[in-house]
Amino acid sequence: MLLADAVTPDSGNTAWILASAALVMLMTPGLAFFYGGMVRGKNVLNMLMMNFICLAVVGVLWIFFGFSWSFGASHWGGLIGWTKDFYGLGKPDVLTGVWTSSAKVPILVFAMFQLMFAIITPALISGAIADRVKFWGWTLFVLLWASVVYFPVANWVFGTGWILNKLRAEDFAGGTAVHINAGSAALALVFVLGKRAGWRRDPMRPHNVPFVLLGASLLWFGWYGFNAGSEGAADGTAGLAFTTTTVATCAATLGWLLVEQLRDGKPTTVGAASGAVAGLVAITPACAFVSPLGGIAIGFIAGMLCALAVGLKFRFGFDDALDVVGVHLVGGLTGTILIGFFGFDHGALAGGVEAKRGLFYGGGLALLWVQIIAAASVFAYSFVVTFVIGSIIKALGLLRVSPEAEQVGLDESEHAETAYAFSSVSGGTLTHPSGGAAAASDPARLSGQGV
Amino acid sequence: MKLVTAIIKPFKLDDVKVSLENLGIQGLTVTEVSGFGRQRGHTEVYRGAEYTVDLVPKVRIEVLVEAADSAKVVDAVVEAARTGKIGDGKVWVTDVDAVVRVRTGERDEDAV
Question: What ranges in A126-235 are assigned the alpha helix state H?
Fold first, then answer.
């Protein structure tokens, strides 16, 4: 991590990271459809908007101070990061510099790639609290959470902070910083927020299962940028990450469907989509630290574990609406901890990754222990701080919509829209042609203007 | 005049329509509806959570006929819609007081 201007960027690496940034950007809309298909039809636009607003909010924060706090120099013993020159991302050194001496990617290219991680992480939380949160309250949450949870944790795990540089835990693309972080926050926020009206009594079936599989497929596609792009270069390690990402996702889909067949008697579409996502989550921290066979093992275990974990909310009574805890927290923990078993040393591959051996490769318990500390630390920090942020927003009265608004659905109550205007007999007239309260409400006034 | 109303399985709609056309029926109205009878609902599973869907999709067909034709129409619908399995639906006939064809203003038997 250094400002090494006067070094020419590597065009191949730069091209791959630019492409990866765009791939990861697509994951957030993909996630929106994955989640949007699972909610009831009266809340689908709100679900899409909760994800889309993360692009808008975090994208702006990132330029002002997000990149600086995430990837700036370390302070306070690795607990917090910032670099003054990174505020605004417009200083000449920043505009002309490259990120590392090895990969030689321009700083702004690296910054845009990492921005997409900062966007999707709060977006992941939205699935847990679907169908009952005020839109501007959620937006405020995203702003605060990105600032005091994601940016510092990204600094610990990806930047100059303590988890990467002192503890030396292995998290290649964000099992801790993204998935455990978001899953833990989801759990905390569900406790602050409470259950949906009618949970465990009313049917809350997914309203559009094709959306769910479409969204999962977009996530899978974008995840190649997330995992293989996290190498920071177009090299053999990126190829390994691409391979393990693929096979872990395949194996996790099979694992989830196997559990469904044995438990429920039918393999479901939602299950296949969920299994794929569980595999992607679990392989994220491990993708460059395990062999392809290790990737299959991690994926298969994660697919089965997550398929079982989504039932926990009914046992313990927390309304994690779309199973962010069951998929992202459990999947993230699985992948992060299994590195301690499957971690292998691929000395032959080019690229600056330091890989340690896990228990199954003669490395003993050292790596496993480090992984557990990293996972537990991010879990605890995210849970506590999210609980505080959620409680503040709740105290301000900005968190939960009224029971009436929840009843009619958030598309109408929060956004004044309907997702599916299929009925030709809904009636009505245009009351405010150009918006604004002063517009004509009397049709006669329109004809008076010569329309 | 009579109104013949039939609730049938959705996939039987085409059979019923063809058989009514063969009978010389000039028009009918179809609505997508849901409901339950002895068939009750079915079960769906999402991420291990089992839902009982009480109201099953059905199709409602309405045909206006002259009183003399109603028995033949009912027989045609029943024959075409029957699968022999539970959930085949029901057909009933009601009296109609007045009918007007909107375009011409023709009334009653002339309008059927």
Answer: 135-145, 151-157, 162, 181-193, 209-228
